[in-house]
Amino acid sequence: MSQYDYDLFVIGAGSGGVRAARFSAGYGAKVAIAEERFFGGTCVNIGCVPKKLMVYASHFSEDFEDAAGYGWSVGERSFDWATLIANKDREIARLNGIYERLLQNAGVEVFEARATILDPHSVEVGGRKVTAEHILVATGGKPVRAREPGCQHSIVSDDVFYLDRLPERILIAGGGYIAVEFAGVFAGLGAETTQIYRGPLFLRGFDADVRAFLAEEMPKKGVDLVFNQIIEKIEKTSNGLAATLTSGEVREVDQVLYAIGRQPNTMDLGLDRAGVTLNGAGAVKVDEHYRSSVPSILAIGDVTDRIQLTPVALAEGMAVARTLFNDEPTTVDYHDVPSAVFSQPPIASVGLTEEAARARHGAVDIYRSSFKPMKHTLSGRDEKTLMKLIVEREGRRVVGAHMVGLDAAEIVQGLAIAIKAGATKEHFDRTIGIHPTAAEEFVTMREPLPEPEDSQAAVRAAE
Questions:
Q1: Is the peptide bond before 436 cis (omega within 30 degrees of 0)?
Q2: 8 A C-beta contact, residue 22 and residue 136
Q3: Among 247, 394, 399, 430, which residue carries the largest CB count within 10 Å?
Q4: In the chain, what percentage of residues exceed pLDDT 70?
Q5: How wide is the angle at C-alpha 163 spanned by C-alphas 44 and 57, nearest 5°?
Q6: Ordered domains of the chain (ranges, CATH)
Q7: Per-residue pLDDT at 206
Q8: Is-contact 225 215, C-beta < 8 A?
Q9: 90: which residues sit within 8 A by CB, 6+ positions away?
Q10: Looking at the annotation, which residues are catalytic?
């Protein structure tokens, strides 16, 4: 009989924590999980799921307009924020219930309370001390809060999903995917939207062509992009908020949203008390099997600050369960992980950027195409799509695929399989396209771009 109350105690019932708990229990382990807020974590409650629902909602404004080119007459229309939020809340509550039932059906004991670590094998949860052979930290991340004067008048991404009303004018600070996505959402729903970023171009880390292309497309959707500036202070006025920029310009808005990054949720968990080592960003440092500096304490997902994606956390949770309780040491392959940004138009990428490919492989061939989607030949909308393939020249292997445009995420998911399998450009060329689709462009691009005079210029520009 074990000397511990549990074989595994999981702190955090987000995607990764739930996956690890369920499958560990399925392998015969005695498992408990603690969640102080809501089942499903960030993604289900205040992240990708409700945000994607808002993206869908925001598209209808232009879909109604586009319908005219196809012979449809759309009558009077209006948008009700309260209805969207209520319907979103109902769907999230349904998902919360599913996550809780998954745990219960797997035989996992659930604590709806905050848990903190007392020592390498002990946890305090709901005023009770329990012990476990292994403790898994899966507490995710949280938005970074601004520090500028008047920042108490601003909100972060978590708050968007609970706003009482749609702001008529909003200023969004930040240049990451969250800022870009919310800029598209608010503009699509009818708000006067400005996005401000401290650098010359947003989405640092993405392919340079993708970044520049999206910066050209977003203003067509009504987003005012302001680069090379930040907010210096925010003041409350009788008419809303006054945000002073570094240029001295004052923007009068109803809401300021800071989306300036996320940080690992490790504060006050007792990790220091147990001797767990954190990195400079406050993330738990782990080895290839997700063990921290204290072998009995493991961590997965955003709290480790590796790749902040729900499917990655799920894979890590599965790896932990197999390693600990199925005698199957498992790691996650972090190469060629596909991702999407539900901007408007959306982005999807897999593999290397051009800058990274040149740095790693030297000689590469670039295939790029930009065109108006077929849908907009009748809608009349001035929207374009970008597709790009990056091929390492010596072996002809496709090492990167990037797209900006309608259905980008749906298209690139399939390409991710090919790139993961090591497909060459010749494999792409021999594949018959599905016509008429945008996706067929990926298998019909035949001529590479001319080699730039300075092939390292893009590399330096992105640094």
A1: yes
A2: no
A3: 399
A4: 98
A5: 65
A6: 6-142+263-325 (3.50.50.60), 151-260 (3.50.50.60), 339-458 (3.30.390.30)
A7: 98
A8: yes
A9: none
A10: 435
Length of the chain: 463
Q: In this predicted model, what pLDDT tens digit does every residue of 336-364 receive, in sequence order? A: 999 999 999 999 999 999 999 999 999 99
Q: Enter the tokens of residue 19.
A: 């996956």
Contact 214, 347 (CB under 8 A): yes
- In one-letter notation, the amino acid at residue 202 is F
Cβ distance 361 to 461 under 8 Å?
Answer: no
* pLDDT tens, position by position, 259-318: 999 999 999 999 999 999 999 999 999 999 999 999 999 999 999 989 999 999 999 999
CA angle in degrees (0–180, nearest 5) for 265-266-267: 100
Q: What is the pLDDT of residue 2?
A: 77
Q: What is the arrangement of strands in the sheet containing 250-253, beginning at the earlier edge strand? A: 231-237, 240-245, 250-253
Secondary structure (3-state) at 204: coil
Structure tokens at 360: 């790693």
**Angle (nearest 5°) at CA 267 between 264 and 269:** 110
Handedness of CA 34, 35, 41, 44 (dihedral sign): positive
Read off the amino acid at residue 86.
A
Could you read off the pLDDT of 41-81 as tens digits, one per residue? 999 999 999 999 999 999 999 999 999 999 999 999 999 99
Q: What is residue 453's predicted lDDT score, i.e. its pLDDT?
A: 73
Q: How far apart are CA 8 and CA 18, in angstroms?
A: 12
How many angstroms separate the Cα of 319 from the Cα of each of 17, 83, 157, 290, 300?
12, 40, 30, 9, 10
Phi, psi of 164 (to 5 degrees): -70, -30
pTM > 0.90: yes or no:
yes
How much is the pLDDT for 141?
Answer: 96
Own/partner pairs, 92-96, CB within 8 angstroms, 24+ separation: 92/40, 92/44, 92/45, 92/49, 92/50, 95/40, 95/44, 95/49, 96/38, 96/39, 96/40, 96/44, 96/45
Whole-number average pLDDT of the chain: 96
